[in-house]
Write a structure and sequence with these properties.
261 residues; alpha/beta; DNA primase DNAg catalytic core, N-terminal domain; Dna Topoisomerase Vi A Subunit, Chain: A, domain 2; four-stranded antiparallel beta sheet; four-stranded parallel beta sheet; 8 helices; disordered C terminus
């Protein structure tokens, strides 16, 4: 049996957003994310070597893993539980980027929580807004602060990101295999109003289309109220969230649902 490759050591010190380039900061500014929020979320730029040695990212040596790292932190302990790197130069396949986002080797899947999640979750009336991308979480967090909206954006890491490896089970052949199912992090939805805002590329992305068509989430029976918004054009490209029309449409959707309940 092949031995599992040891996981690289990782630093625990909090990085600074100053590791981001001016172009990076301008990109985040366009979606309304200020530098203090980036610092609080420990978003930073990493080289290929940093991604591998410090963040636990693996891959072929010929593949450059440099990019922006988005660390994931537990909403319970505050400890880092994993990370995803948005690569600058992913490989292209049939004209589309392949493995644009890569996760730390050996880590289980988690939901992406913004820096103020622990305090927000102390209020049982704070609704949760589930979106796909980490950038969307940061953009909506910044928007909520500016507009004094009491919502907690949470990232799925993809339209099916609420599912992942949750343990081990026995196959029909008696072999030990990974068991997949809803992530334990979804317990934060219990007893709360939950909005699900998937990306708007449902027409061109088969995965998003399947997720939207299914409209089945494990917390439907435990959340106080589940609102499935139509795939949202404002959230398809995080940059559009920074536009005034984007703020108004998102705000209107949330206000409309709140008043309806």
């Amino acid at each position: 049996m092949t031995a599992r490759r040891p996981e690289p050591a990782r630093t625990t010190s909090a990085p600074s957003a100053t590791t981001l380039t001016e172009r990076d900061l301008e990109t985040f500014q366009r979606i309304g994310v200020p530098i203090d929020l980036l610092e609080a979320a420990h978003v930073e730029r990493v080289t290929d070597r940093d991604a591998r040695d410090r963040c636990g990212i693996t891959g072929l040596v010929s593949h450059n893993m440099a990019g922006i790292v988005l660390p994931y932190y537990s909403h319970i302990t505050g400890n880092r539980v994993t990370a995803r790197v948005r690569r600058d130069n992913p490989e292209m396949e049939d004209g589309k980027p392949r493995n644009k986002y890569v996760s730390a080797y050996g880590d289980g899947r988690h939901l992406y929580f913004p820096p103020d999640a622990r305090s927000k979750l102390q209020e049982s009336t704070t609704p949760i807004v589930l979106v796909e991308a980490e950038k969307s979480v940061l953009a909506l967090t910044a928007w909520a602060r500016r507009t004094s909206r009491d919502v907690l954006p949470v990232g799925l890491g993809g339209c099916w990101g609420w599912r992942g490896r949750i343990g081990k089970t026995e196959s029909v052949n008696g072999e030990r295999v990974d068991a997949e199912g809803p992530l334990p992090d979804l317990a934060v939805c219990d007893g709360r109003t939950v909005y699900v805002l998937l990306d708007s590329n449902v027409a061109s992305n088969g995965k998003v289309q399947a997720a939207w068509s299914a409209r089945t989430f494990p917390f439907q029976q435990t959340s106080q109220a589940l609102q499935l918004e139509a795939p949202h054009p404002v959230l398809h490209r995080p940059g559009s969230i920074a536009q005034q029309s984007g703020y108004l449409r998102t705000s209107h959707a949330l206000r409309h649902r709140e008043h309806a309940m």
